[in-house]
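=== RUN LOG ===
request id: a7f3
mode: sequence -> structure
chains: 1
length: 181
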Amino acid sequence: MDTTKISKKQQAGNALPIIIILGLIIGAGYFLIGEDIRLPKFLNGEPKFDRVEGFPKTVYVTKEMEKRREVITSEEELNKFLNEVDENNQIDFKGKINFDRKMLIAVASAYSQTDGNKFKIRRAYKDDEKKTLLIALESQELGELCEKKVDPNIIVDFATIDKTDWKIDFEVLKKINEDCE
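=== RESULT ===
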């Protein structure tokens, strides 16, 4: 038997470590610079949005305020929104947003006389035909039998989404919390 000939099993065995090393290099490269690379979307699913840490947050107010639904595309717009909804500087916005690649969805509930209500950005849906992103909000109010504390407030929530030129609409799902939780 000729020992200089390498069997096909030995050749495949020698290639396996090289394939593993290449996979690790590609994985590490994507981990380090993955946000800067736009890969094609293989799945055409729901748009991804990221919640901003520390929100939703209840902000206690001294005057009535209208509900707010805004798409913020710059640091100046964010500061303006915060100054308008937070007269007592109760919001400590620590999130760092890259406005070159992301947009900030900013919402504030309508003025409420009582504490204990909930309000948040629930999810995002896309309508490819209309080129529209629909941001679904959820509003929960305490039921009639629940004990309510009089404390005027609004609730503010933020989420980031990838920058898009699509139209952005909002819808609110209202719920009554009869469990008083």
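=== NOTES ===
Confidence is low (pLDDT under 50) at residues 39-44.
The first helix runs from residue 8 to 33.
=== END ===
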